[in-house]
């Protein structure tokens, strides 16, 4: 069962500029080993293969034992990527490239995940699919730092997974003063709320 | 007495354009047509993978359609060299950092000044909420700042057609302010301006194109 955190930050530019401090804050809230996703600027894929399907097979095979889903067919079903399997990676749209990178990253085992700028460039449908897949994995906690938190789907998750919407007022003072922990307001969040 | 409104002159003409990527049978863009007058603003809305970026690249002459034609003031862009073409139609990539080629904001601005033969306006720069220190490396800009900087650079070139592929965060106050300014200045600048996004935005555009 995943705990999903959507921290509110006053200045979204900290996603780029203060990510190390934000990671530390996450570690204070949920003391776990995290892997961190940053939205890539230049990456199209590994560069070793041409097609989307080949990329998925390559990454799953290379990380065998370190993936939540090792079977490409199951991965494709879970992440709903079947439409673009035959496409060249270089011809994939920007949003789908990002979604594929999010899918492959999320599928790698780790106690916790921190995502910086996951939603941008994704449609509502892909954001919804991404979040459901995050919750379905066995990640203990995931933090999502987003430029536009309003893109968080109102009805997600649609299963009975408990989602905590953490509103943290990360003022600059809070960020720099490591002694002060986050000012945290927790609200329970269920499907449909 | 019969009052007849003046018909706006068409600046950008897109006629029956189709485009398929190599080894793909289904065209991403299929028989798309549209006429746009100087000063018009257009929002292109569509899901991921529907062809928003492809349409932008076709409009700006970066890729040539297999069928149909695009012209700006009756001039086809397809045979123009990129350095000439960008004065007419300029495309801001959704990963706009790809278009930064220098290690400081000053150098980036200077290269655009050299390209366009026009000087940059400090007043305009300030209105885009960018760092006052021009020695800043463009790669150190935040996503929102980088986007606003790309928009600012396009004002130096002042193209006839501008395609802004992806708005990073339309709810961000500063982005919104810049967006509003660009929309309000569209008549003055006589530019056809396209923005693309995955969903509708609560700002007023002259036209909205839905791509499915």
Description:
The complex is a heterodimer of chains A (193) and B (212). Chain A is globular and about 40 Å long. Chain A has helices at residues 14-17, 19-29, 52-62, 72-79, 94-106, 124-136, 172-176; strands at 3-5, 34-38, 112-116, 141-145, 163-168, 184-189. The longest helix of chain A is centred in the middle third of the chain and has 13 residues, at 94-106. The model of chain A is unreliable at 157-193 (pLDDT under 50). Chain A has a single domain (3-189), classed as Rossmann fold (3-Layer(aba) Sandwich). In chain A, strands 1-4-3-2 form a four-stranded parallel β-sheet, with helices on both faces. Chain A is an alpha/beta fold and 193 residues long. Chain A is 34% helix and 16% strand. Chain B is α/β, with parallel strands linked by helices and 212 residues long. Chain B has a single domain, classed as P-loop containing nucleotide triphosphate hydrolases (Rossmann fold, 3-Layer(aba) Sandwich), CATH 3.40.50.300. Chain B has seven helices and nine strands. In chain B, the strands form two sheets. In chain B, strands 6-7-8-3-9 form a five-stranded parallel β-sheet, sandwiched between helices. In chain B, helix 3 runs parallel beside helix 5 (143-157). At the A-B interface, helix 1, helix 5 and helix 6 of A face helix 1 and helix 5 of B.
CATH topology of chain A: Rossmann fold
Strand order of the largest sheet of chain A: 1-4-3-2
Q: Which spans of chain B have pLDDT < 50 for at least 5 consecutive residues? A: none
Poorly predicted tracts of residues of chain A: 157-193
User: How would a textbook summarize the main sheet of chain A?
Assistant: 4 strands, parallel
Q: What percent of residues of chain A are in strands?
A: 15-25%
Can you write the helix and strand succession of chain A as a string?
EHHEHHHEHEEHE
- Main structural class of chain A: alpha/beta
Mean pLDDT of chain B: 91
Q: Output the radius of gyration of chain B.
A: 17 Å
- Assembly type of the chains comes to heterodimer
**Mind telling me the CATH class of chain A?**
Alpha Beta
Helix content of chain B: 25-40%
């Amino acid at each position: 069962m995943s705990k999903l955190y959507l921290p509110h930050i006053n200045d979204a530019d900290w996603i780029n500029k203060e990510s190390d401090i934000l990671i530390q804050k996450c570690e204070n809230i949920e003391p776990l080993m995290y892997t961190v996703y940053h939205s890539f600027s230049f990456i199209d894929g590994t560069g070793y293969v041409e097609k989307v399907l080949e990329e998925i097979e390559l990454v799953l095979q290379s990380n065998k034992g370190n993936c939540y889903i090792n079977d490409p067919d199951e991965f494709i079903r879970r992440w709903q990527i079947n439409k673009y399997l035959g496409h060249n990676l270089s011809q994939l749209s920007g949003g789908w490239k990002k979604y594929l990178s999010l899918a492959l990253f999320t599928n790698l085992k780790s106690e916790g995940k921190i995502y910086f700028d996951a939603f941008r460039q994704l449609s509502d449908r892909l954001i919804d699919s991404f979040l459901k897949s995050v919750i379905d994995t066995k990640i203990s906690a995931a933090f999502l730092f987003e430029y536009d938190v309003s893109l968080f789907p109102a009805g997600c998750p649609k299963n009975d997974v408990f989602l905590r919407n953490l509103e943290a007022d990360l003022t600059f003072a809070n960020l720099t003063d490591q002694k002060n922990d986050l000012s945290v307001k927790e609200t329970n969040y269920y499907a449909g709320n | 007495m019969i009052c007849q409104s003046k018909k706006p002159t068409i600046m950008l003409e897109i006629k029956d354009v189709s485009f398929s990527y190599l080894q793909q049978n289904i065209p991403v863009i299929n028989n798309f047509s549209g006429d746009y007058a100087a000063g018009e603003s257009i929002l292109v809305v569509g899901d991921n993978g529907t062809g928003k970026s492809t349409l932008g690249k076709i409009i700006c002459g970066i890729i040539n359609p297999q069928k149909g034609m695009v012209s700006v003031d009756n001039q086809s862009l397809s045979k123009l060299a990129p350095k000439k073409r960008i004065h007419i139609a300029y495309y801001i990539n959704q990963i706009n950092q790809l278009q930064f080629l220098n290690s400081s904001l000053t150098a980036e601005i200077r290269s655009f000044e050299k390209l366009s033969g026009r000087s940059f306006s400090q007043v305009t720069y300030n209105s885009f909420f960018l760092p006052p220190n021009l020695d800043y490396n463009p790669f150190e800009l935040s996503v929102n700042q980088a986007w606003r900087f790309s928009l600012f650079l396009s004002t130096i070139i002042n193209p006839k057609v501008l395609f802004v592929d992806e708005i990073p965060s339309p709810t961000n106050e500063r982005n919104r302010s810049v967006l509003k300014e660009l929309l309000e200045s569209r008549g003055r600048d006589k530019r056809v301006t396209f923005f693309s996004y995955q969903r509708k935005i609560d700002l007023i555009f002259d036209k909205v194109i839905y791509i499915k």
